[in-house]
Specification:
- This protein has about 90 residues and is of the alpha+beta class.
- The protein is about 50% helix and about 20% strand.
Length: about 90
């Protein structure tokens, strides 16, 4: 793992971030001690972080699950037009 101090991180942020994006972790030091780590992140990691730390996203997911259980839906076309009244799916 590459070590960079905060001054180097500030001066070469883009270069260091490109290094991380290419799969190489970097440890950041301040006053000679490691204080942070930079590591590559995937889309799945971002999704997980958003879900973990966003109360609103978790609330929306719970509401969606409830709507699915109650067979309520809005077609994509209606959603994109701004119409958000629910339809009941017919049982087949």
């Amino acid at each position: 793992m590459k070590l960079v101090d905060t001054a180097e991180l500030k001066a070469q942020a883009n270069k260091i971030l490109h290094y991380v994006e290419n799969g190489h972790p970097v440890a950041v030091t301040r006053y000679g001690k490691v204080c942070a780590a930079l590591e590559p992140i995937t889309e799945a990691d971002i999704d997980e972080l958003v879900f973990q730390y966003s109360t609103r996203v978790r609330q929306m997911a719970a509401e969606s699950a409830e709507d699915i259980q109650k067979n309520r839906y809005v077609t994509l076309r209606e959603y994109l037009k701004g119409k958000r009244s629910y339809h009941r799916r017919s049982s087949r």
